[in-house]
Amino acid sequence: MKSRFLKDRLATAVLWSCMGAVLVILGGILVFLVVQGAGALSWEFITQPPRDSMTKGGILTPLIGTIQLVLVAMAFAFPVGVLTAVYLNEYASTDRFTGLLRLAVRSLAGVPSVVFGLFGLSLFVIFLKFGSSLLSAGLTLGCLALPVIVGASEAALKAVPQDYRDASYAMGATRWQTIRKVVLPAAFPAILTGGILSIGRVAGETAPIIFTGAAFFTPDIARSLFSQVMALPYHVLILATAGTNIEETRGIQYGTILVLLLVVLGITLTGVIWRARLRMRSSR
Prior knowledge:
The protein contains 11 helices and 2 strands. It is mainly α. It has 2 domains: 1-40; 43-283, MetI-like fold (Orthogonal Bundle). It has a two-stranded antiparallel ribbon with strand order 1-2. Helix 4 crosses helix 6. The two termini are 44 Å apart.
């Protein structure tokens, strides 16, 4: 009995230590970014476009471009990912084809982002002739987000009790009516989690958009899906690697990173609040 108690206490201490280490590392990164980048933040920094070879001015153009890329990517990836999960969980039989499809989806999650960029260049930019544009970059980022959304959605659908489906069938509903009226509403808060998780990866990727639509510099916000677009991650890369005034733009670099984190945090927080309200509404 004493040995079991000691093992339990040891395991608890190890788990708490791991959690504490993660919090310390995360807190250290956040404090470092705030110290380095807070001085660059101002109303002009947020509302003015870059100028003078991006060494002065603000980040309005890449900020709006990042939001546009996230919206295009999620408009493509979220419905496609959810419908794929519905097929895998509700319609597909347990056979070799379904197993290979699940394996392919899981494998996509481990593919380097630069490979997605080359894929987007070949398919969207060249083959479909969308050109280097917001649409090409957004669709490429959507492909990057698909594995996360499919995996989270399928897990959410599996968590819905089978009794819900059986009760719906007993009342004369068809399979699609059951999925649309019963299964999806019950699983949607968890499905939304997959969308929230994918937003952070989509907003912070650089390699895919370099090949498909990100502009080194453009003075205007993208007016259509076929316009090139600036983005915060690529903007940071340019400031950190191009030119001879890297030290002069250090504050802008960290300020841009800080704004990117705040944008992702704001979008994520909005999704979390929406998910909490949906859960409260479904539990009534």
